[in-house]
Design a protein that fits this description.
four-stranded mixed β-sheet, four-stranded antiparallel β-sheet, 9 helices, disordered N terminus, 8 strands
Length: 329
Amino acid sequence: MQVPKRDAGADRPIVVTKSGNSDGAKGANHSAERSGQPMREEPRRSGKSYEISKRSVWEAYKRVRANGGAAGVDGQSLAAFEVNLKDNLYKVWNRMSSGSYFPSPVRRVEIPKQSGGTRPLGIPTVADRIAQSVVKELLEREVEPIFHPSSFGARPGRSAHDALGKARQRCWEKDWVIDLDVQDFFGSLPHDLVMRAVRHHCSESWVHLYVERWLKAPIEEGTGVYRTPSQGTPQGGVASPLLANLFMHYAFDVWMQRHAGHIEFERYLDDVVIHCSSEERSQSSFSLLYARVSRNAALCCIPTRRASHTARMSAATSSTGYTSFDFLG
């Protein structure tokens, strides 16, 4: 696919002749005010490589603004971005619709974990978060209908509380669980498999183009130190949870349906609880999962058997001594 090169005039407004509308409105208007007025739509232009509406960029900006967040590598905060809001949003739209949009490097910071230690968080620039939100909104509409009903993470209308509620209900019905976690989940996602899933579910070539550019965007690991990732997606990116969930849909949910469709589970991104009716069944399920992990380098999982603490179980009934487990803790 030929991608137009960025040139000196890529961000200049395009002049369009007066339209034939009865109200005499001009055909081009790229203004967007902080007061809440959306960017006005314009007629389709044959000079643009991709059909991306200005309204989608405006709505993406509103979502990014609602979520807040720190500045990226350019040091530009949301407040600074909004000083020249209409021109900044126009640049995002113009570059995305012409194919000349390239993401900035991702700023990496270490944040403390509740269990101790730290985990890396990747912070894109404000402009990149808006661009990612445009793509996420479109891709989410395509993949949301295919997700498993026991998948709860990074999905509209679902939350960690829903996952915990379902897990609590099933723990009353079955005494044994397998608690599964994925090591370095966001940092180890295989780019080729993520892109294969994106291409399978979305036909828009510009979505493929920009998702691949985000996956390969350099990561700033220190002052002037950059690394080009060969795998993973920044935890902190707007589109990252959706891409990670799409990968786990095929790596885990679909595989479970095919090989152990009778087993119930809850999954919140990479945190999984699998319910079993007996210790023997938990052991056989554990062996099945371990074999799956051993054959697939993309799934560096740590499954551990645990007995759930329910009204029907006490420490005396468990030969392992485990009577509780930690889900989304």
